[in-house]
Amino acid sequence: MRHKQAKSRILWKSCSGRFDEAYARGKFAAMDDQPDMFGPDPAQAEMFEEPVAEPPKQLTAEDIRAEMLALIAKARAAETMPWTPREVRSHTALFPYMAEWLPKEEGEQLLLEFETEMERLRKAA
Q: Would residue 92 count as lying in a domain?
C-alpha cells in the first residue's frame, strides 16, 4: 500500500510541477480572461419574475363531457372515418377514461354511443 501511495505522490508532484511551470510561462489563460460562453448572469431575482408557461388548465367534468359529445357528434355526422388511424387509436383508448369523470350511468351511456358509432364507421370503411 505504501508503494502505491509513494507512486501517487511522485506522480502528483511531477504533474503539478509541470502545470505550475507552464502557467508561469503564460501557456494557460487565467479563467478571468476567458469570455463567458452564456453571457452575463442575470440577477437571481430576475430569473423568477415571470412564469415560463401558464399552468395547465384544470379540467372539469363539464369539459370532459363537452369533448365526449363533440367526438360523438363528429362520428355521427361522418359517412366514413373522420380521423386518422392514430387519432382513432387515441380516441378509442381515452374514451373509457373520459367516461370515468362523469356520473356512472352518463359515462356508460356516452361510451356505448361512441362505441356504436365507431363500429358503424369501421363497417363503412
A: yes
Q: What does the longest C-alpha to C-alpha distance in the chain come to?
A: 86
Same domain for 111 and 72: yes
**In the predicted structure, residue 13 carries a pLDDT above the cut 70:** no
Q: How many folded domains does the chain comprise?
A: 2
| Parent domain of 16 | 1-30
Closest CA to 99 of 120, 72, 117, 74: 72
What residue has cell string 364507421?
A: 121
**Do 69 and 17 share a structural domain?**
no
Q: Are 61 and 102 in contact (CB under 8 A)?
A: yes
Q: Is residue 1 part of a domain?
A: yes
Q: Three-state DSSP class for 93?
A: helix
pLDDT tens, position by position, 47-88: 666 767 788 889 999 999 999 999 999 999 999 999 999 999
Alpha-carbon span 67 to 73, nearest angstrom: 10
Crossing angle, helix 104-124 and helix 61-77, to 10 degrees?
30
